[in-house]
Amino acid sequence: MSDTTVELIQTGPEQAELIRNLYQFYAYESSDWEQEDVEADGRFYIHEEHLSRYWQDPQWSANLLLVDGYIAGFLLIERSELAGINALELADLFILKRYRRKGIGRAVATQVLTSGEADWLVRFYDQDEASQAFWRSVLDHLPRPVQAIELEDEPQLLSFLVTRAVVH
Asked: Which Pfam family is an annotated match for this chain, by its short name (predicted)?
């Protein structure tokens, strides 16, 4: 990855269609454990009101991941709305297959989770073995405290809270 240029670019509402199109690949890959079927038009359902929040709500963002100038995936960030969780949520990280297993996803996730002053919530499906292996390798090597937490809203999700390092 040494000669590779990786950029994370926050999108605006004019790129909603691009994010919507990329999300179809993400939905396809997660359809096994999310038990999602395609709609009558052959596409996976996207909740448009939720999608629009990435460009309307404070601390929500839809970010495009570029590798050497080419679209390689996306990162969706939300402000957690779960009771008692004051954190940003790394809601969805998707890397196109061509760019996987090169350390790009790990580098982006690590950079995001260790930058700034926010605490972070990371959640992934217990049944998604690839995602579970990826996130465990990221979380196990973070220079910030990581704590497994139990949340009742979606029991099939494993949840972790990444907190700011305490300065002594």
From this structure: Acetyltransf_1
Q: What's the rounded Cα separation, in Å, for the pair 40 and 130?
A: 29
Q: Is 92 helix (H, G, I), strand (E, B) or coil?
A: strand
Angle between helices 129-140 and 104-114 (to 10 degrees): 50
Indicate the residue type of 45: Y
Are 87 and 118 in contact by the 8 Å Cβ rule? The answer is yes
pTM of the model: 0.88
Give the pLDDT confidence of 95-126 residue by residue, as tens digits.
Answer: 999 999 899 999 999 999 998 889 999 999 88
- Calculate the dihedral angle through the C-alpha atoms of 58, 87, 73, 68, rounding to the nearest 10 degrees: 90
What residues make up the domain containing 104? 6-162
Domain count for the chain, please give it.
Answer: 1
